[in-house]
Every structure is written in structure tokens, then in C-alpha cells.
Amino acid sequence: MCGWRIYKAEDVHEMLSQCMRSFRVAAGENKIYLFFISDMNPLVIALCALVAVAAAAPVDNTTPVPILKQALDGPNPDGSYNYSYETGNGIQAQEEGHLNNVGTDNEALEAHGSFSFTDSDGQTYHVSYIANENGFQPEGAHLPTAPPVPPQIARALQYIAEHPEENEEH
Questions:
Q1: What's the pLDDT tens digit per position in 67-104?
Q2: Phi, psi dihedrals of residue 21, rounded to the nearest 5°
Q3: How many Å separate Cα 15 from the centre of its chain?
Q4: Cα–Cα distance between 113 and 135 in angstroms, integer?
């Protein structure tokens, strides 16, 4: 015979307490072991499983962000393209790209663009970039920059460039 039974809150609390006492955790080398003591009431096991599934269920509490503006052109037959968009939370982005050295072994895509966003503290960040065969090269006021080359190093590099050594063949 199968059916549903309604339990009092105290009974559910006792079953959950029993459930929690029925697991043991042990740590091994690069592993964590979870041991289950199996002399439990099958109802308690089912209740524990139900609680675990309910607790693990993802909750989507995010609000969709609307796209306010969006434009796209391409990809075109010559490999060029451009796009831009703006979202309701202040994110803006735009990029245009084209192929360099078309038809050669050095054919490469080059893209120029920028994006901006506002962080949770209200600070707006703007990044401009170039991406090509030399990699991704971002620029922005908030990005760190390399320190200037010390004058001694600059002089040494200039000297090396002006006095190349002759190739010696052995």
C-alpha cells in the first residue's frame, strides 16, 4: 500500500538531525571521503535526498538586461566587419575589423575597438584596443603601464645597435 503521510515539524527536525548524524567525513590524500551509515529508516534517506536536491537547485534571481542599441555589418566578402551595442546597464562596445595582407602567407585579421562598463562602485572604465598579428593591445586609464626604460639601459641598447658584432665562422 502506497500513500502520503504528513509529519509534524518536530518529527521532521528529528529525521534531519538523524540524517546529519548518519554521515561521516574523512580526508585522504587529495580526496575527501563521505561515509554513510546505512542503518537508517528509508524515509529518512529519502528526506535527506529531497533536502539535498532542493538545496542544490539553481535559483535564477537575475533580471535580464535589455539591449538598447545594436548594429552589425558583416562579415563582408572582403573579410571586414563592424558591430556595436549598448545595454541597459551601461555597457557599450564597438569593434571594426579587416584582413591585412590578403592572399599571402601573412594574412591576418586586425580589429580596432573599445568597450566601457561601470562597476558596482559607480566607477566607469573605458578600454580601447587593437588586436592583430602582434596580439591584443589594450589601453585604458585604469590599466597599468610599463615603467620607462632607465637612461643607462637606453644608452646600452643604443650602443649595441650602433656596434653590431661581426659574424664569426668557426
A1: 999 999 988 888 899 999 999 999 999 999 999 888 88
A2: -75, -10
A3: 41
A4: 14
Cα distance between residue 130 and residue 132, in whole Å: 7
Nearest-angstrom CA–CA distance, 49 and 36: 12
Instruction: Provide the pLDDT confidence category of residue 1 given band limits of 50, 70 and 90.
Output: very low
Q: Are 82 and 95 in contact (CB under 8 A)?
A: yes
pLDDT in tens, 12-42: 666 666 656 656 666 666 666 655 555 556 6
| Residue 157 to residue 164: CA distance in whole angstroms | 11
For strand 67-73 and strand 31-36, is the pairing parallel, antiparallel, or unpaired? Answer: unpaired
CB 78 within 8 A of CB 100: no
Q: What is the 3-class SS of 81-128, one letter each residue?
A: EEEEEEECCCCEEEEEEEEECCCCCCCEEEEEEEEEEECCCCCEEEEE
Of the candidates 146, 113, 106, the one whose C-alpha atom is nearest the C-alpha of residue 130 is 113
Which single residue is written with the C-alpha cell 571586414? 80
Count, in order, helices (H) and strands (E) of the chain.
3, 8
Identify the H or E element spanning 43. helix 42-56
pLDDT of residue 30: 67
Instruction: Give residue 125's identity as a one-letter amino acid code.
Output: Y
